[in-house]
Each structure stands twice: as C-alpha cells, then as structure tokens.
Amino acid sequence: MQEADLLLVNASQVVPVAGGRVEPIENGAVAVQDGRIADLGPTPLLRQRWHAAKILDLQGKTVVPGFVDPHTHLVYAGCRHHELEMRLAGKTYLDILEAGGGIRYTVEQTRRASHQALLESLLQRLDIFLSQGITTVEIKSGYGLDRTTELKMLEVVQEARKHAVQDLVPTFLGAHVVPTEYRDRRRAYVDLVISLLPEVRDLAEFVDVFVDEGAFTVDEARRILEAARDLGFGLKVHAEELAHTGATRLAAELGAVSADHLDLATDDDLQALKAAGTVPVLLPSVTFFLFSSHYAPARKMLDLGLPVALSTDHNPGSSPAYSQIFVATLATFLMGMTPAEVLAAITYNAARALNRHHLVGSLEPGKQADLVVLDAPSYVHLVYDLARPLVEMVLKRGEIVYRRRAFAL
Ligand code: NIG
Ligand code: FE
Q1: Does one domain contain both 224 and 243?
Q2: Residue 408 in domain
C-alpha cells in the first residue's frame, strides 16, 4: 500500500485521453502525489494500492484533463461590441479593419492602457477561463504593434504568471497587422518586427504571424518566421482564415508547431500539415461570430489522422469566447466532430499545439495533476448539455483551485 496526497474515487468516468485516445475508465479513480498524477484506474484497484489522507468521492461525476487553450489574444484594453452592431448592419470584418477599426481600434486602446490595467483585466479573464476548466493558456501579444506596447503586453503576461492559477504560454505576434503609421512602409514594419525578436526572446516562447488579406503576405511571414526559427522560437501561423494565401504550406515547410484557423485550407494543405507534423488548431467560434459559413474541414483532417485541436481564439473582435466547452459544442454541431474528438481537441491535441503534451493535456502517471470534475456521468455531456455550467471543480497541480458549489464533496 502506498501513500498519496489525494485520491479521487467512484467517478462515473475518468477519461485519461492518453496519447489523444478517449477510453473512459468506468467507476474510475485517480491518485495524486506531489502535484502529479501517481496512478489511475478502476476504483476497487486503486483502493487496494493507495491510501490517502484526503479522499474525494465523485459519484455521478466525470474526470477529464484540465482544458488547454492553445490560441488566445487575452491581453487587450477596450471592447468592440459596436463592431458586432456594424457587422449586423452589413459591414464585414475586413471593411471595419480597412477603415482603421478592428484590430487597429484595439491597438489604440491597448497603447493607452497602463501595465496595471492590462494586468487586472487579463487576470479577470483568466479567472473566468478557470471556471470553464481551462488550466493552460497560450496568450499572444499583437495589440501593440510598436516596441513599447508589444513589450508591455509580454511583460504583463510574465507578471500574470505570478498571480494566475493557469500555466501561461506567451507568443509574440508583432506581425498581427501593419499599424496605421507604417501603412505605406510595410517593409520597414516587417524589419521592425524582426529587429524585436532578440529582445522578446526571453519573454515569448512562440512567434506567430497573421497571414491574410488585410494582414501579412506569405513572403513577409517567411522573413519573420525564418528569423524567429533561427533564434530558437517555436512557430505558429494564422493561416487561411479570410483568404487562401498558402500560409499553411509555409507553416509546414518551416516546421511550425501549429497552423491556426484553416477555414479555407485545401486538401494539399492538409497533406502538408500531415507530412510536417504541424498541428491544425481550429477556431470555429470565429467563423460563427463572423457570420461565415466556411468552417474548417475538420472531418477531412480527422479522417487523414491529423491531431485536430480547438481553441477559443479569445479576442475582442472576432471571438469574445471564454469557454472551450462552447467551442467544442460548435465543433460538434457545425463541423461534425464527435464528443470523443472534441475532448481530445481541447486537451491532448491542444497541448501538442503548445509542445506541452509531455506535461499536460492527459491524465497519465508523472504528468501534472491538472484535472476537471464535470457534473455529469459521461464526457459526452460536454456537448450534449447546451450551456449548462458543467465544471464542478478544477484541480491544478493537485490543488483544488476552483469549486462551483460551496459544499464540500
Ligand atoms: O485570430 N486573425 C487575427 N487575429 C484575431 C482577431 C483579432 C481581432 O479582431 O482583434 C483572430 O481572429
Ligand atoms: Fe488569433
């Protein structure tokens, strides 16, 4: 008999998602020690193997890995609800961007905001993410588009690491759009982004480029991403969202960790991702929120064996979404992904998109004890229950960091 810090027992299901496979353990149990998963399996077996001072009886509940959100723009000031009304009146996202609104509006607000104000609003958003079971979050810069504000955003993320419960993964997105003051000097702006790379090396793990109509070209992205790769950054690309540009093939060619959006990706693009091992990160809440009907070809990707990940893409313009469960629901009903596929997409595959699948994203002995207790007897309820708050409890490194109810289980 071994001694654990905590034993979760009698769960209707424990779904480890090991290696991305969804194979529920009925009447499951999990042993946690030193913030890591020590063991998991059927309750009677774990009861024989483990003693623990603290035991949680989870009858009727489901235990899944903490959700990972691999693509967010969570640091920003202001909000863009007025653009929703403009879009309802017939303007498109690109019309608004090209008229100096959209991302550029958020840039103005973010440049004016203090470090402290950005930090506080970020922590509030992370708190909501936690209540939705999200325990690891990627966060991009990209609403600064000048040296001072890009650094400010990345420093805010570093500061947030000291206060937030989640693991935060920072990405430098200096190449989000060309800022207004560089409108006629695109090359100079790309040069500026490249010149900032050594300076942000200690502040960001990934470099991302928004390649699209109204944003950057494949050639511009190549210059930035090759320089980033040479400095040892992991690479990400916003690809094939509003127009098909060839960004996916660039991502694959450069060995990017992920290619994100992919609404307009072609069969050739999918083959390139497969050959390169680049993870497709799909963002259906953007497609939904922009009233588009071009959802990414998720079924084709899955049938090809690609490790499809899902993300909120939380940002104030194209996806003010706070929940991976909501995104998973869209993926099921609008892209035909099964409940098992969406669960893998917001856990293990999302962790792959951040190069963290050895640490988080599944419940396996030795991995971080980040887990979510769902108030439902099966993981299928993730998408079966529409907008019912399902997250009962969240554990981060074995500690209870969120409880929906006041009573103790
Ligand atoms: O991922 N596509 C580029 N960036 C964001 C949108 C940002 C914004 O509109 O503020 C996205 O959709
Ligand atoms: Fe994005």
Answers
A1: yes
A2: no
As beta bridge partners, residue 14 has: 25, 63
Do 374 and 241 share a structural domain? no
Which residue CA neighbors atom 12 of ligand 1 most closely?
318
Residue having the nearest C-alpha atom to atom 1 of ligand 1: 313
DSSP designation for 305: T
- State the closest ligand 1 atom to the C-alpha of 76, by its place in the atom list counted from 1: 10
Q: Output the pTM of the full model.
A: 0.97
Indicate the top mutation candidate among 210, 213, 258, 289 to test ligand 1's pocket, ranked by most ligand atoms within 8 A of CB.
210
Say if residue 22 is in the same domain as residue 73.
Answer: no
User: Among the atoms of ligand 1, which is closest to the Cα of residue 93?
Assistant: 9
pLDDT in 10s for each residue of the chain, 409 residues: 999 999 999 999 999 999 999 999 999 999 999 999 999 999 999 999 999 999 999 999 999 999 999 999 999 999 999 999 999 999 999 999 988 899 999 999 999 999 999 999 999 999 999 999 999 999 999 999 999 999 999 999 999 999 999 999 999 999 999 999 999 999 999 999 999 999 999 999 999 999 999 999 999 999 999 999 999 999 999 999 999 999 999 999 999 999 999 999 999 999 999 999 999 999 999 999 999 999 999 999 999 999 999 999 999 999 999 999 999 999 999 999 999 999 999 999 999 999 999 999 999 999 999 999 999 999 999 999 999 999 999 999 999 999 998 656 5
Find all residues with CB under 8 Å of 300, minimum gap 6, and list them: 267, 270
77 and 176 both lie in a single domain: yes
DSSP state, 33? E
| Shared-domain flag, residues 266 and 195 | yes
Ligand nearest to the CA of 177: 1
- Residue list, ligand 1 pocket, CB within 6 Å: 73, 102-103, 106, 210, 238, 241, 286, 313, 315-318
271 and 150 in a common domain: yes
C-alpha to C-alpha distance for 270 and 303, rounded to whole angstroms: 11
Q: What is the CATH number of the domain that holds 40?
A: 2.30.40.10
Query: Closest ligand to 241 CA?
Result: 1
The type of residue at 273 is L
**Nearest of 342, 335, 325, 332 to residue 376 by alpha carbon:** 325
Q: Are residues 231 and 331 in the same domain?
A: yes
Ligand 1 centroid – CA 52 distance (Å): 46
341 and 250 share a domain?
A: yes
Ligand 1 pocket, mutate which of 86, 87, 176 (most atoms under 8 A from CB): 176
- Domain span at 390: 2-66+362-403
- The encoded tokens of residue 35 equal 């913030």
